[in-house]
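Hi everyone,

Forwarding the result from last night's run.
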Amino acid sequence: MATAGEASDPLTSAERKAAAARARSAHEAGRAARHERLAHESASPFLRDAHLRIAALHLSTAACHRTAAELQDAFADRLMAWARRPGSPRPLFMTGVAKACGSGGAALTLVGTGSADLALAASDEPSRAAQELEFLLGEGPARDATSTVGPVTATGDALARRWPGYGPAVGELGIAEVAAVPLSLDGSCVGALTVYDPAPGVAGSTALAEIAEAVTRSVILGPAGVADLHEGIDLRARVHQAAGMVSVQLDCPVADALELIRAHAFGEGVPAHRVAQRIVEGELRLG
């Protein structure tokens, strides 16, 4: 977990996370090598197979930590380049995730209490807009990936067939293909990584799942070091705060109030958090 000092210095945090991930990768690789050696030395076929299975698990974990280190290294490089260009936009961690996935964009979504989705981060504005559409319309790849706890992919006409609202809307953003994989933590699904217009072969690949696991380990388990990832959570929190206020005002369930906010935002063509901000500040009253 990053310290408060690291949270204000994302470059230091990224460098330390990269170093820690490389150390964990080396440790897991060493454990894999030990079990491979024991398998080679074992006279028992049963023990040999057991050691080889354990070695494979350690190698998989080592690869995950290595990917996490590469993501943090790339982020640190972009932060250093940004520091030499005063006035330029601050780099986003998710931009590197999208590049690693070989996709045009990527978004990270967490699942909160009662399956309420919390927008966590996106690589660019089209990806953020696509993520917002899932929240407004209540359907899309991240939602399906978290509900089924499995990979989801759709391209071309299949987008509209699978998601009648989301499919055409995301197509208007210029996105022709989406793929999502669940994020697992301690045996539970905590969200999804979604990529937009991935390169051929990326959707459904083990590489995408490996990057999702690396993001879970390097970001979700210690997000304070990547300050950019907090913004989406704050925005969604404001939406749920506004839903509570509307629920009291209209004497209706919070779920119904949330749907009213979503419908109003979609009708106006603005993000839900902007509608929520107006409600919280008393500038807008629904119903």
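The two ends are 44 Å apart (CA to CA).

Cheers,
N.
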